[in-house]
Specification:
168 residues, heme binding, transport, mainly alpha, metal ion binding, Cytochrome b561, membrane, 75% helix
Length: 168
């Protein structure tokens, strides 16, 4: 007989905190990251950064590093504690789409900071990957938020509540 571990009914407090902190940091990067392009071009052309560009670049880099570290903690936490099953009534396709979306977030949460660091410190060519990830992040965020709101206000299955309050 094969033993299947019991899946949690919700997320832990640490999983919820990591979700919202990472979400806030990613949104900050998306909104204020545009300034990084000017700083990147200036450095690449051997021009000095003014104070605002220097501060913007430093913030972007350090917040990116924070996202990378927190994403690693989040991934380890998810692998350790697990994630709740899809809500009752979900189709197999919905479950696969939700699971795929979550894992794509993890891919981006690692790819974007690493490619940004490589572009800044090693080779500008990695900046192409970094830039291509921005629209992917935006599409995933919009899809994720839309799905959460759909579950909350149309299906009313409590999925959003799982990411607002710990159930353990």
């Amino acid at each position: 007989m094969e033993y299947e571990a019991e899946r949690p009914t919700g997320y832990t407090g640490i999983q919820i905190a990591l979700h919202w902190v990472i979400a806030a940091l990613v949104l900050f990067q998306l909104v204020f990251g545009e300034d990084m392009g000017g700083a990147f071009r200036a450095v690449r052309n051997g021009e000095p950064l003014d104070a605002a560009q220097g501060l913007s670049a430093d913030l972007h880099i350090w917040i990116g590093v924070a996202i990378l570290v927190l994403a690693a903690i989040r991934l380890v936490t998810r692998l350790g504690y697990g994630a709740p099953p899809p809500p009752a009534g979900s189709t197999a396709l919905q479950a696969r789409l939700a699971d795929g979306m979550h894992w794509l977030f993890y891919v981006l949460l690692f790819t974007v900071p690493v490619s940004g660091l490589v572009a800044w410190y090693v080779t500008p060519a990695a900046g192409e990957i970094h830039e291509l990830c921005k629209p992917a992040f935006i599409v995933l965020i919009v899809g994720h938020a839309a799905a959460a709101l759909y579950h909350q206000f149309v299906v009313r299955d409590g999925v959003l509540r799982r990411m607002l309050a710990p159930s353990r």
